[in-house]
Design brief:
Elements lengths: L7 E6 L11 H4 L4 H14 L3 E6 L3 H10 L6 E5 L8 H10 L3 E5 L21 E4 L4 H13 L1
Parallel strand pairs: 1-2, 1-3, 3-4, 4-5
The structure holds 1,3,4-trihydroxy-5-OXO-cyclohexanecarboxylic acid.
The site of 1,3,4-trihydroxy-5-OXO-cyclohexanecarboxylic acid (DQA) has 10 residues, from loops.
Length: 148
């Protein structure tokens, strides 16, 4: 948190992202979550950021993780998966913690089904990155680094 310490970033993967690599590979690609996490950790290190990664399929657990980031993390990258489109509770948690959050989607949600075109979390995030596959996470880290 202090200027002397490395900035700390929490990366949150929401529901079904544990199945990356086998889930709808035509949309999300063949990389597993472990591969992607390794790339995230590598990029974070390159940027001089401390990084922790968390995945959960449960709305409440994601909210609890956001809450416990208070006082510990300087920034959050979040792919809230399908919760993006309807979880007012996750939206409120992001607003409550007052830590800059970057919304991430691997797919271009605006080019898919109508129900994916609305994000309830976007208005409380510092910015959103969509449609670049696993690179969406990397671009988000770059953006967050400059924000912090
Ligand atoms: C996603 C897009 C969401 O609409 C979907 O429910 C996901 C993944 C993405 O990364 O493209 O689970 O967040």
């Amino acid at each position: 948190m202090s200027m002397l310490n490395k900035r700390k970033v929490l990366v949150i993967h929401g529901p079904n992202l544990n199945l990356l690599g086998e889930r709808e590979t035509g949309i999300y690609g063949k990389d597993t979550i472990d591969n992607i996490n390794a790339e995230i950790m590598h990029k974070a290190q390159e940027l001089g950021l401390e990084c922790e990664i968390y995945q959960s399929n449960s709305e409440g657990d994601i909210i609890d993780r956001l809450h416990s980031a208070r006082g510990d993390f300087d920034g959050v990258v979040i792919n809230a998966g399908a919760y993006t489109h309807y979880s007012i509770a996750i939206r409120d948690a992001i607003a409550a913690i007052k830590i800059p959050c970057v919304e991430v989607h691997m797919s271009n949600v605006y080019a898919r089904e109508e129900f994916r075109r609305h994000s309830v979390i976007a208005p409380v995030c510092a910015g959103s990155i969509v449609g670049f596959g696993k690179n969406s996470y990397i671009l988000a880290l770059n953006g967050l680094k400059d924000l912090l």
